[in-house]
Fold each of these.
Amino acid sequence: MIKKHADIIVIGGGIVGSSILFQLAEAGYTNSILLEKSKFASGSTNASGGFLRVLHNDFEHTKMAFEGLPEFDRIKMNCDFQKTGMVYVINSDDKPKYDHQIEWLKNNGISIDYLSSSEYETWSNIVQLKNTDTVIYEQEAGYLDPVTCTNDWINRAVELGAEAHEGINVQNILFSDGEIKGVRTSFGDIYCNILILAAGAWSSRLVRPLGVDLGMYSKAIQINFFENQKQTAHPIVIDEKSDIYLRPHAGGSSILMGQPTSEFEVNLEQDMSLNHEDTLQLIEQHNPQYNWLNINNLFGGRRSFDGFTRDAKGILKKEETIDGLIIASGWSGGGVKLSPSIGKKVTELVESVKKERTIHESFHRGRV
Ligand SMILES: Cc1cc2nc3c(=O)[nH]c(=O)nc-3n(C[C@H](O)[C@H](O)[C@H](O)COP(=O)(O)OP(=O)(O)OC[C@H]3O[C@@H](n4cnc5c(N)ncnc54)[C@H](O)[C@@H]3O)c2cc1C
């Protein structure tokens, strides 16, 4: 049976919603319900490459990924974590931008440093470096299965007393007098004090009727699978100059390679298959630097989407105009590694909403 009242409702059972539910339950907020319209981890999380790394091109995300490491350490063995190390390729001109981050990470115990091209070439040839390239190496990075991770967090939250339901579509958000009241679902209304929006690319349309514009848009992401006869064990690679990334796939016998696309405002209900034009463009632009890229080696891939913001930073805040609404959406193609930190920050926001209400109520009572 689904409760009719809960303290907190989380909309969306992707990796972000599941991490939030788990963090809330661990902090003692067990009167919480997560509602997922389809299957858990069936949205963006389902197609994700599951790259797990700390270094990002902006310090804020680096810090968030760093803060999430202990949470991943607790579950990564259940989630098929593969430690491969990460080769992060930047243009040498951008090096000053990374110096400070690398120093900060080293001071915080992360094994990361610049690698000379000769050091790199002695153990990997997955990327043919250009003279203008600089390589950063992060030793503990790798990848995991985000679907297992999502289900793991949901199971742990449920064990602690929270609830999570699949197949329950939130049709509308109920609110009046600028305050959240609950949600209308395909199985009736459920009332709550705090509502957390973690519905990925679907988030915008859920809050539009409340007059809230998240400034988010959906964008397609494509990953292609290529056979790999050259090198079975190789690191994950993030090529910051061209926004492409790769990792071993299927035990290393193939390569999963992600690329940016220019398909915006995707139809969120459509089945998505690989776009042939995008694959050809990837090969044309990046061979010879990735000299194994060849259409004859392609044997499949995945195309999906995520909710993006203009600055590619997620939206993590209390909605000022609607009391009790917290937004955790718009992770712009990078939500997996940030998910533990998002869960922790949402828990802090819930605490602050509760505190404000206690202050407000005692102030109000004092006046009567
Ligand atoms: C091809 C691809 C590769 C990627 N690779 C990486 C990577 O390597 N590393 C990384 O960090 N990130 C990666 N990402 C991005 C990452 O997958 C997303 O940022 C992350 O999964 C977002 O999680 P989420 O929970 O916010 O959204 P989602 O996983 O999309 O979950 C939202 C959920 O909300 C549900 N929902 C929507 N509307 C409703 C409603 N009305 N009622 C109830 N439920 C609803 C949906 O069904 C969905 O399950 C990749 C993404 C793609 C597409």
Amino acid sequence: MFHNIHLNELPSGGKLFEGEFRNDLFDLSGEEAPHYIGPVKFSLNVSIDGPWIIVEGSVTARFELECARCGQWFPYSIDLDEYYSQEPREGESTLDLTAHIREDILLSLPGYPRCEESNVEDRTCPAAGKFAKDAEFVPFPEEETAEAPKRTDIWNVLDQLPSTGSGPTKSKS
Ligand SMILES: [Zn+2]
């Protein structure tokens, strides 16, 4: 583990830290939360540039995600090939590189995973045909239920038009 990189001891060009974690750093819970498969591999150069801590290199991690459309679990690899982070040092003498890696992997997990986006397996989502009209946008259930009353309101208004006596469809009598 690389919890405490001593920033004061870094050579001027920085220092390369490489390795892998097999243990689960993520502690993701919940039925639909991504499953950590591992390992996390990293190759990161840590350097100091004036007031900044620069971390650059690559990070990869294997997960299993649940497809938001078909509900199947599929393999997914986080590949941060051009990882770059610059953050203020703020007088710190150490850097918790493990926490850094963990956080950036979590931020890279897709919020709305679809199994055909697996970069490990070539897949076709079995539920894809059910959303043929717009494959890029699938409304959340909340939006569907929010829309339903609006549609009802419109029909109510239309229904009321003839009975007001001023509707354009009313025939003369
Ligand atoms: Zn799917």
